[in-house]
Structures
1.
Amino acid sequence: MGEQDRELDVAPEWWRWATENLLRGVPERLVSEQLQAAGVSSVQAKELLSAIVGSPIFLAARPFARAARQHEMLARLKQRMASTALDPTGIPRRSGVSAAELRDVYVAGNMPVILTDVVTRWPAFGRWTPAYLAETFGDVAVDVTTGRLSDPDYDMHAARHTESTLLRDFVARIDGARTETNDFYMVANNRVLERTSLGALLNDVVLPDGYCAAQRLLGSSALWLGPAGTVTPLHYDTSNILFGQVYGRKRYRMIAPFETSLFDGARAMYADRDPEQGSMDPVLVKDVVLEPGDALFIPVGWWHHVRALDVSISLGINSFPFHNNFDWYRPSTVA
């Protein structure tokens, strides 16, 4: 297009503008009218549009642009429909959800739900406290993340902040925290259930029939333990997760994957926006507090930001008895 650009004497920004609008499906007639309104002669506009639509590059880009428009329309439809809910920022609380309903309604529908009668049936509920863990497993060496406040990307760099300590000493550190802190935390990446005798804790977890594949529970569960004030930044996961809140409370802010503006600036699975720092408008944020005994179903792809409101013990499980690994989005592949 370089030689034609010079021959037509049309500024490069008009070439770009016309190409973008044609790829968006704007009729050539309307594009031509706008060009002429901006001072481009009718002859130049006609030749410019002819050069663009006849370009092999434009012809190759057109089907991709058409697919992008279709997905944009679908995302806008989902956004508008989500906003019509009676409580668009809430998450339904349910009891008595069978494995079939969980799968057909919430997994297949990619919708979060708080299950109020799952964790409360675990022997863990009422038993797991920091004191119990320290007394029963105090001599177990566990990996925890520390020095998180020194690194704005602490969650992405968890391996850099990992150190080993006795569980008894870690609980004492939690007990000694006089104020909320995000500086130290036992997070899922440390995989303490698999690597230590803490795996015995799963004997205190009894899920409804059909909820999970019991033989994979050990390798597909994660224990979280930390003080009030710990924060997991806004991110998504590539699997569905059942998150059981055993002790303390956590505040969840969740955003559906059809809010595609969060892709902009994302690194790995982390968004570059913080629901605690300024407005998230126009993105719709679901904002809920998990109480002790609640289980939150987190659908794959849903962005979520988590803050512990109290000293907290949580268990994440993703050993569902169906395919549950969705490598659905990589920021490096979306320009």
Note: Confidence is low (pLDDT under 50) at residues 1-6.
2.
Amino acid sequence: MTASGIPRVLLADDHPVYRDGLRLMLSSTGTVEVVATAADGAEAVLLTGRLRPDVVVMDLQMPGLDGIEATRRIVTTHPGVGVLALTMYDDDENVFAAMLAGARGYLVKGADQNEILRAITAVASGDVIFGPAVAGRVNGYFARLAAIRPAVEEPFSQLTTRERQILDLIAAGSSNRQIAERLALSPKTVRNNVSNVFAKLQVADRAHAIIRAREAGLGR
């Protein structure tokens, strides 16, 4: 973040007209700082290492190193950098590949300025966010999984009751602040519990925790 709390953003897209238009649009708002643009995944990885932006807005289908692999490399090497996928594809394959690679957000091109800005701010804050169309696809996917799975014993027996409650809210899309308000807990207590949940589930970030939790039927 800048000194004023404005997220620093790197844009990666192989279409120069869209990339430059997005840069101008975001810069004009004064609510984010676009620190650089990249024309492919390899350049995005390189510039992320040099500039350490808060958020990389990543197209997925790019020549050479694609956005999925670029996301995986960025998240592995620089876990403090959030990746927001912004692509024209909203099929299951791309959505879940991006999530598993470590993307914290997923929007489809055509999202308006407010949606993109809201997603950048959420990802910069460590939250996970999906556009409306993608969220419906994610929910539908896990609903289908739940329908075909037999009943099983309560999942995640290694978690305390409070931790399981917090994981359920994470899976439902709640931020740490919303969880704190819902459960009448301090933000620090929520952060500590979230860290304990990640450690016990052996996941690196919120996106992977959501996948594990929803596969087990939480967050409904």
Note: DSSP finds ten helices and six strands in the chain.
